[in-house]
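User: Mind token order:
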Amino acid sequence: MMTNPYPTPSRVGVRPDARLAQAFLTQAFFWMFLGLLLTTGIGAVVAGMSDTQLSKLAGLVLPLIIGQLVIAFTLTLAIRRISASVGLLLFFAYAAMTGVTLGFILRVYDLGSVVAAGSAAAAVFGAAAIYGAVTKRDLSNLGAYLFMGLIGLIVASLVNVFVGWSWLSFGISAAGVVIFTVLTAYDVQQIQSGAVAAWAGAMDKGAVMGAFKLYLDFINLFFMLLRLFGNRR
């Protein structure tokens, strides 16, 4: 989530031409799907490594997590000052790092659970995205509540790292599915309305940020569903 300090189409009552809005949304989805393909490909490679190779790679997990946080903050805070090409490169770097994490997860859960979670995430994401694209209801007012929900998820997840309560883990995952489903519809509407492009300062930068937001929505939906219903090996 990001707070938009700049005037947006939704604030001034302006909506871009329907063809332009559709082209902008299509571009964002295109970059998002390329990011998901990169994540899946790297995840498959990592999952296919030997135990010895994985043990060596495990030492890179913490630096990768830190790198992801740096990229996320850089994209969010500096997108207006960097080029769209640099932004896209950072997005793909983030997707590649997530692929390494996915590889470790693929070794923990059985293949059937991974496929089921991926299929369910695609169905939920698709339904929410369609709703966000076609609804006449203004979802922009949900932004503050979604942001607070994300903060709550992060805090609860950090707490559960230390306490390890199974019921809290279940609650976090269930709440996460709801939050990221609603967030998908919200983000699609914000992208289509031109609000993301206005925030980013240019259409091409807005497409990159839109792709990053949608990518995060899908990946988090997948992880939450896998935690809820996945069977470990």
Summary: Residues 18-47 form the longest helix (30 residues). The mean pLDDT is 86.
